[in-house]
Write a structure and sequence with these properties.
CATH superfamily of the largest domain: 2-enoyl-CoA Hydratase, Chain A, domain 1
CATH class of the largest domain: Alpha Beta
Number of helices: 15
Length: about 450
């Protein structure tokens, strides 16, 4: 009793437990082989975005997942960040699928080359890819010589063309289109891109994409992968707090505001040492702004103009310019804000909807500070020797030699003045010297 017969096809309890243990031990490996990681980018390609993508690709490789799907909608981004992503795509030990989605999305500029470098490139209907001409965001043309500027632009363009063609050749895609996307900034809709051999799949949604991916064969570094995606388990890897924070700071509008907050905080700390809080906030804001400037095409002439504006506002306190320094500061602030980021790409520019109100508020803030300081300087002193000048008092006792005592400011003081004063006369203080007041008759008129 209590025993199972093997001849009846029934497993013994001990055998069943052993099989269950083996299944449990192999489950993580079996799951990893069928799982697909999905990461999504709906922003410009910046170093924080590149780190988010590359770290998730590395994690998928380490966990032996079947593939990575990168869902993108991007206006473009920095060349260095783009190249970091492409290198990780092409050298990953598992297939990387780039899917331009949802409908209405785009893979422009850097996004076009990232899509081109994918093992499988897919797009949703109503999306477009292209416009990959390199934008000058460095010191091109700073010398002021047109010939040198044109030569540098040509070098950058030729380098981008060679890079795009090499990626297209490696992925067996349309090299001529890749060159035109760089040289002529052409942009192509999804179905036309499929016809021209730029992408591999057009899929309306993720379910359709997985259906079309199922059974596809991808060869990487001599290893062949057959995608089995129909029943695959999708693992979404949203951007974590750290990457969201760094990405937000890298936004040009946020970087611009952080810089202004930093300058204002340091101004307060230097003008009122010991306040502590303005200095701490200002220092942190400036450090974060400088971090963002590393990831953005900063024009340091714009930074210099904004710093000059701050100096002009401060100088207004010391120099009687009748408002000219303040006007100059406002103009310098506005010009510096417009020139701060040098690129025609909208994603790397400060919005005029931010520049105008921030410039007005920042300028008004400093003008108010100047007004309050000037008002404080013009205010009649109320303490010390200067605070007694102009005070009213009563003669308490008086001598014929023009000396005596007066009651003034709640105290009795030695005083000197005209000899004709009598006790009880109202007087006014005109000077103080060595703890003695000089007084005159109070002009009642």
């Amino acid at each position: 009793m209590g025993r199972y017969k093997k001849s009846n096809g029934i497993l013994r309890p001990s055998n069943f437990a052993l099989i269950l243990l083996v299944v449990l031990l192999l489950a993580p490996f079996m799951a990893g082989a069928s799982d697909i990681v999905v990461i999504e980018v709906k922003d410009a390609i910046t170093p924080p975005i590149a780190s988010y993508i590359t770290e998730n690709i590395d994690d998928a490789v380490n966990k032996d997942y079947q593939a990575v799907i990168l869902r993108i909608d991007t206006p473009g981004g920095l060349d260095t960040a783009m190249r970091a992503i492409i290198q990780r795509e092409m050298n990953a030990k598992i297939p990387v699928v780039v899917y331009v989605s949802p409908q209405g999305a785009r893979a422009a500029s850097a996004g076009a080359l990232i899509t081109l470098a994918a093992d499988v490139a897919a797009m949703a209907p109503g999306t477009n890819i292209g416009a990959a001409h390199p934008v000058s965001i460095g010191k091109v043309g700073d010398s002021g010589k047109e010939g040198e500027s044109d030569t540098m632009v040509e070098k950058v363009t030729n380098d981008a063309v060679a890079y795009a063609r090499s990626i297209a050749r490696q992925r067996d895609r349309n090299e001529e289109w890749a060159e035109d996307a760089v040289r002529k900034s052409i942009s192509t809709p999804a179905h036309e891109a499929l016809e021209k051999g730029v992408i591999d799949i057009v899929a309306s949604n993720m379910d359709e994409l997985l259906e079309k991916l199922d059974g596809m064969v991808v060869t990487k570094d001599g290893t062949t992968f057959e995608l089995k995606t129909k029943d695959a388990n999708l693992i979404e890897k949203p951007m974590g707090f750290r990457f969201r924070l760094l990405s937000t700071i890298s936004n040009p509008n946020v970087a611009y505001i952080l810089m202004l907050i930093g300058l204002a905080g340091l101004y307060f700390e230097l003008s009122s040492p010991g306040a502590i809080l303005p200095g701490v906030v200002g220092g942190i804001s400036l450090i974060l702004a400088f971090f963002a400037f590393q990831t953005l095409p900063v024009n340091y002439a714009g930074v210099a103009l904004i710093i000059l504006a701050t100096i002009l506002f401060i100088a207004e306190i010391k120099v009687p310019s009748f408002g000219l320094l303040t006007v100059g500061g406002v103009i310098s602030m506005l010009l510096g804000s417009i020139l701060l980021f040098r690129t025609p790409e909208l994603y790397a520019q400060v919005s005029m909807g931010i520049i105008l109100p921030v410039t007005i508020c920042f300028s008004a803030f400093f003008v108010l500070c100047v007004y309050l300081v000037a008002k404080a300087h013009r205010r009649t002193p109320v303490t010390g020797a200067q605070g007694l000048i102009g005070e009213k008092g009563l003669v308490y006792s008086w001598n014929t030699d023009g000396t005596g005592k007066v009651f003034c400011h709640g105290e009795y003081w030695n005083a000197r003045g005209p000899a004709q004063f009598k006790n009880g006369d109202r007087v006014e203080v005109v000077e103080m010297s060595e703890m003695e007041l000089k007084i005159k008759p109070l002009d009642e008129g």
